[in-house]
Amino acid sequence: HLSASSSTLAYDREFLRTVPGLLMVTEIVLGLLVWTLIAGTEYFLYPAFGWVMFVAVFYWVLTIFFLIIYMTMTYTRIPQVPWTMVGLCFNGSAFVLYLIAAIVDASSVTKDLDSHNYNSWAASSFFAFVVTSCYAGNTYFSFISWRSRTLQ
Question: How large a percentage of the chain has pLDDT more than 90?
């Protein structure tokens, strides 16, 4: 006698209506813009843009991963993981590394370097700073969540 167990994944529709949820979606959309604007150029000739690409693609993929975890409420199925601390570390590291990448991106954009790619690099720099501010906001909300859990 075989019994089939069914496990259904929960779906949290309300997460996208919260400020952290909206910030994550903004991070994904604008992070995609950052790395596609650079990827469409000859960035590989300039090591600084390689660093920006690494940070942008790395955190873009991880942000999608965390959005899926929060949307499907997978974190409730793995209570052994300190999710508030994981979120704080993720958002904090994303903020710091994106800030460095945005500064590197902005300081590397010059018309003298390659005028053909100037507009794409300038736009990627702008969006990198916007994404940095989104990660800063999510770091703040992660800190508030972590702080409220540690005080209990």
Answer: 68
